[in-house]
Amino acid sequence: MAKYRKKPVVIEAVQYNGLVSEIVDFAVEEHPDNVFKIFNYFDGELFINTLEGKVKANKGDYIIKGVNGEFYPCKPDIFEKTYEIVE
Questions:
Q1: Can you tell me the distance from the alpha carbon of 63 to that of 74, in angstroms, rounded to the nearest whole number?
Q2: What range does the domain containing 17 cover?
Q3: Segment (H or E) for 28
Q4: What SS3 state is found at 25?
């Protein structure tokens, strides 16, 4: 069986602290006309239309911009194990 290593990729991300405006500001650069088709804020909860369908983002999750401009949430513990800050 072959073994594979994940290619190093630099991503952009922001931690969701409950302020939807920060998420919109983060995403609007990539999708200025479609940001509200990607993100839905309903009844105090944030949802992201990902490539796999609609996913709820919880306070504390990181919102990641993928290599193709897509967005998705990531739990803080997984994010910290997978990513490190690039300076």
A1: 6
A2: 12-82
A3: helix 20-28
A4: helix
The radius of gyration of the chain from alpha carbons, rounded to an integer in Å, stands at 14
Tens digit of pLDDT for each residue in 30-43? 667 777 778 888 88
Q: How many distinct structural domains can be found in the chain?
A: 1
Percent of the chain with pLDDT over 70: 95
Give the residue carrying structure tokens 């983060």.
Answer: 26
Give Cα 41 distance to the centre of its chain. 15
In a domain, 70, yes or no: yes
Tell me what pLDDT residue 68 has. Answer: 86
Question: Would you call 20 exposed, middle or buried from its count of C-beta atoms within 10 A (0-12, 13-18, 19+)?
Answer: middle
Q: What is the pLDDT of residues 42-56, one digit of tens each?
A: 888 999 999 899 999
